[in-house]
Fold:
Amino acid sequence: MLGKKILAGVFAALILLKLAFLLAGPQQWLGMTTALMGHQAVLIVIYLAILAICAYYIFTSLDLIDVAVVMLFTSILVGLGLIPYSASLLKVMQEIATIGLGKMWFAWIIWAGLAVAVLYRIFANKK
Structure:
């Protein structure tokens, strides 16, 4: 339980820190983001490590159906936040479609695995 509370606290603190930076100095935030995006390999390793830690706590202590509902909530919240930027996002999606979706294979495997596991739980009546 302590591990989950630590992860939740880190999440909350990072969200508030990000919002404070965005409100106080969006250009500084953009500069920092641009600098970080220049190190994609490092970011991938960091994200994978964080993903593994979170996945451990999530899947050892929560029901998969509950996780799916929270992920749906989060996806809707992110989508709601991105609606005002739909024109820009359409351009980005066009660029992604032009370049190809092959760079997203690993994330797609995770999403597909989660979806199949959730559907299995639902239709197999398992908890």
In short: The chain has a mean pLDDT of 89. Residues 31 and 37 are 10 Å apart (CA to CA). The radius of gyration is 17 Å.
